[in-house]
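Minimal example, chain plus flavin mononucleotide.
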Amino acid sequence: MSSFLSAPIPFGEPCPVVSSTDTLRLLAGRRSASAQTLRAPGPDAEQLRELIRLAARVPDHGKLSPWRFVIIQGPSKAALVERLRARAPSQPEPGKAEATLAKLAIPPVTVMVVSRPAEAKIPRWEQELSAGAVCMVLLVAAQAMGFGANWITDWYAYAPEARPLLGLQEGEQVAGFIHLGTPAEPPLERVRPDLEALVTAL
Ligand SMILES: Cc1cc2nc3c(=O)[nH]c(=O)nc-3n(C[C@H](O)[C@H](O)[C@H](O)COP(=O)(O)O)c2cc1C
């Protein structure tokens, strides 16, 4: 096994519950890195495989895998950016649409997480939440590997004319573009919510 992580746990084997102060510390300091600050190196092919393997372990009601991953990097990313640039003038705010393409163009690696809810008895909302969880695990795992990461949607996640460029099928939706790389500058702490106002007990 070439992986630098432990080998996948065989089906039916116990998954031990272990404490991890490192994980708690990482979560306590986790911060998105601004996409435009992300530079090479990004994760290599093996690291990407590991990130996706970790992200695909999210809770998934009904085991439907209601999501898929698209890796966007190199010349195909440059080509996508140019095709989207051609569609920026027809967006409601053309200047902003053009400028925000930098968030896709600059980071060396992007993983598009696609939500693809199935027709099933599991509510669509729960399947979409699972896709959100995938995005979140990618962010956390990327930071644990020493990379910066940023979860972005932007206009081309929603613009109908961008759908064929992204290869989206009927019923699919972008859950997020997870931009990955090495931050040129560390992100600064942002305002955090007042938990007193958000936590109650029944
Ligand atoms: C679903 C989703 C979509 C987002 N889309 C954008 C976006 O299009 N543009 C943007 O600047 N930030 C977007 N964000 C916010 C950033 O990912 C990030 O959460 C925020 O800048 C800082 O949060 P953090 O450092 O606590 O992670 C999005 C967040 C989520 C959860």
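The CA atoms of residues 64 and 118 lie 7 Å apart. The mean pLDDT is 96.
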